[in-house]
Design brief:
The protein is an alpha/beta fold and about 400 residues long. It folds into 2 domains: about 170 residues, Phosphoglycerate kinase, N-terminal domain (Rossmann fold, 3-Layer(aba) Sandwich); about 210 residues, Rossmann fold. The chain has 14 helices and 17 strands. It has a 6-stranded parallel beta sheet with strand order 3-4-2-1-5-6, with helices on both faces. A 6-stranded parallel beta sheet has the order 9-8-7-15-16-17, with helices on both faces. The longest helix has 16 residues. The N and C termini lie close together (about 10 Å). The relative contact order is 0.13. The structure holds adenosine monophosphate.
Length: about 400
């Protein structure tokens, strides 16, 4: 996907700018915002537009209200939190379309910021209904998408609206950065380029594996995914999570890696247990297995020799892309491999890209979050982008 124009390429002073942000923030049991990362992340784009003299009209979704107005999912508290962090008034508008919204926008002066109510209070949002998209478009002259996490969805605020906007359609700083790291830096990587993939299933990641085998020099596999590859090599995996119906797929991957000259590494040892209780967060007896795993035992993490092997590969890399944990990292006894990988990625002097999903949680929990070059904010969107798919929310933006 070629790169798109950004807010730096256009002057939006005096224009009404519809900005799709991702304010889908978590709340604690007392109704307070428990993590403001997404609000903080949107500030540079909002500040840039407001300081330029644009009328900034923010839209987002929050939770899954399923097309009904449900105040459990109102964005009103986000407007308050945003105003505090922006150091500027933010007008909250109780609907994202219709008279209320149109009047609120008419009343705006240059540089003002409004936040529209949850777009998912309307069925037309997730259905990408053209009529709803057109009502949204009445509010604006220009369109900015800065919500990467929903860019893989063709919804009215992420894609449909763009068709009805005649002015500039560009990305904000967050999407620009995502495209730069997940796109440009992996398309023309500094080499050696090492990809680390883990997680539960080969079937979830197969398209990513295939796409990245075209680009990387080394691929390191961990997580339960590794056991399907072990089956493909004729090993036994005991009770480990695996997908016997994906053995042929795994074999095809191994063949592709060989044909491409990609060094494709699987765990040489595993931490195995005779009992895994995910709910209680506990494991029974554990031991290290090299090679085959016997019945009654399952692999829950990469073993110490694999950790050393993978660390050495990472240390030798100039670019590292990581997606998916090396084991059941939610359970402390099975998190060693994932945290060791997080540490080595953080400590290696390389471009380090954490490609969304559970690996983001793992890196943040490990305390190395601020030592990596880039942490993607998209789970599904990151994977689809890495698979080489066109994201609808990016496709509607003007090409650079
Ligand atoms: P994914 O969403 O595909 O990245 O998978 C993440 C999930 O994979 C996490 O919840 C991990 O607990 C799980 N996982 C990783 N390794 C294993 C394993 N060896 N056995 C079972 N689950 C695993």
């Amino acid at each position: 996907m070629a790169s798109v124009k950004t807010i730096k390429d256009v002057n939006l002073a005096g224009q009404r700018v519809f900005v799709r942000v991702d304010f889908n923030v978590p709340f604690d049991s007392e109704g307070k915002i428990s993590d403001d990362t997404r609000i903080m992340g949107a500030l540079p784009t909002i500040k840039h537009l407001s300081e330029q003299g644009a009328k900034v009209i923010l839209a987002s979704h929050l939770g899954r209200p399923k097309g009904e107005k449900n105040l459990k999912y109102t964005l009103a508290p986000v407007a308050v939190a945003l105003a505090e962090r922006l150091g500027k008034d933010v007008t909250f508008v109780e609907d994202c379309v219709g008279e209320v919204a149109e009047k609120a926008v008419e009343a705006m002066s240059d540089g003002d910021v409004v936040l529209l109510e949850n777009a998912r209070f309307h069925k037309g949002e997730e259905k990408n209904d053209p009529e709803f998209a057109q009502s949204l478009s009445k509010l604006a002259d220009a369109y900015v998408n800065d919500a990467f996490g929903t860019a893989h969805r063709a919804h009215a605020t992420t894609a449909g609206i763009a068709k009805f906007i005649s002015g500039p359609k560009v990305s904000g700083f967050l999407i620009e950065k995502e495209l730069n790291f997940l796109g440009d830096k992996t398309a023309k990587p500094e080499r050696p380029f090492t990809v680390i993939l883990g997680g539960a299933k080969v079937s979830d990641k197969i398209t990513v594996i295939e796409a990245l085998l075209e680009k990387c020099d080394t691929m390191l596999i961990g997580g339960a995914m590794a056991y399907t590859f072990a089956l493909a090599l004729g090993r036994t995996v005991g009770d480990s999570l695996s997908e016997p119906d994906k053995i042929e797929t795994a074999k095809a991957c191994l063949a592709k890696a060989e044909a491409k000259g990609v060094k494709f590494l699987l765990p040489v040892d595993n931490l195995i247990t005779n009992k895994l209780d995910f709910g209680a967060g506990t494991v029974g007896e554990t031991k290290i297995a090299e090679g085959n795993i016997e019945d009654g035992w399952e692999g829950v993490d990469i073993g110490p020799k694999t950790i050393e092997l993978y660390k050495a590969e990472v240390a030798n890399s100039k670019t590292v892309l990581w997606n998916g944990p090396m084991g059941v990292f939610e359970i402390a006894d099975c998190a060693k491999g994932t945290f060791a990988v997080a540490e080595s990625v953080a400590e290696t002097d390389c471009i380090s890209i954490i490609g969304g999903g559970d690996s983001v949680k793992a890196v943040k929990n490990s305390g190395y979050g601020d030592k990596v070059s880039f942490i993607s904010t998209g789970g599904g969107a990151s994977l689809e982008f890495l698979e080489g798919k066109t994201l609808p929310g990016v496709a509607v933006l003007e090409q650079a």
